[in-house]
Amino acid sequence: MPRKRSENAKEGRRVFTREFREEAVQMLFDGHAASSVAERLGLSGTNLLYRWKAASRFV
């Protein structure tokens, strides 16, 4: 799943593509634990996944 960096972004800040976020949320819906999804995708924690999941319900 691709990640892209914005040229203007700070060095530590990552920008994730829409497809990356959708696939990550789909993994949660498929029954994978948030902690294992975050670890597998190299995310710092589960909070980001839960925010993406909450936002996907209203789209």
The tally of beta strands, per DSSP, is 2
Structure classification: mainly alpha
End-to-end Cα distance = 21 Å
What is the topology, as strand order, of the major beta sheet? 1-2
Strand content: 5-15%
Largest sheet: 2 strands, antiparallel
Rounded to an integer in angstroms, the radius of gyration calculated over CA atoms is: 12 Å
List low-confidence stretches: none
Overall outline: globular
Into which percent range does the helicity of residues fall?
40-55%
Question: What is the residue-mean pLDDT, rounded to a whole number?
Answer: 87
User: What is the H/E string?
Assistant: EEHHH
Number of helices: 3
Write up what this structure looks like.
With 59 residues, this protein is mostly helical. It has a domain at 23-59. 51% of the residues lie in helices and 7% in strands. It contains three helices and two strands. The protein has helices at residues 18-29, 34-41, 47-56; strands at 3-4, 15-16.
Observed structural traits:
59 residues; mainly alpha; two-stranded antiparallel sheet; 2 strands; globular
Summarize the structure.
With 59 residues, the protein is mainly α. It has helices at residues 18-29, 34-41, 47-56; strands at residues 3-4, 15-16. The chain has three helices and two strands, in the order ββααα.
Topology:
Blueprint: E1 3-4, E2 15-16, H1 18-29, H2 34-41, H3 47-56
Antiparallel strand pairs: 1-2
Helix pairs in contact: 1-3
